[in-house]
Amino acid sequence: MNGKKLYRSESDRMLCGVCAGIAEYFQIDATLIRLAWVFLCCFGVFPGVVAYIIAAIIIPTQSAVQ
């Protein structure tokens, strides 16, 4: 295993830090994840708000992982 861990960011957060944590995990810009999330929520591809809330509950914070 490569040692990467998924967590909610505490430094680069807009709401709960979910998008920033996902972006850090995949090593891409957090803005791209945020834009994709908004795009998918607006066009009804999946229930994005519910998925964000679930992710915010399930994914631990950065300090809890380290």
Automatic annotation (TrEMBL):
Membrane topology per the entry is: Single-pass membrane protein
Q: Where in the cell is it found?
A: Cell membrane
CC terms in the record's Gene Ontology section: plasma membrane
Which keywords does the record carry?
Cell membrane, Membrane, Transmembrane, Transmembrane helix
> What positions does the domain Phage shock protein PspC N-terminal occupy?
4-61
Organism this protein belongs to: Agathobaculum faecis
Q: What is this protein called?
A: PspC domain-containing protein
Organism phylogeny: Bacteria, Bacillati, Bacillota, Clostridia, Eubacteriales
Origin: domain of life: Bacteria
Positions of transmembrane segments:
35-59
Record-linked Pfam families? PspC
Q: Which InterPro entries match?
A: Phageshock_PspC_N, PspC
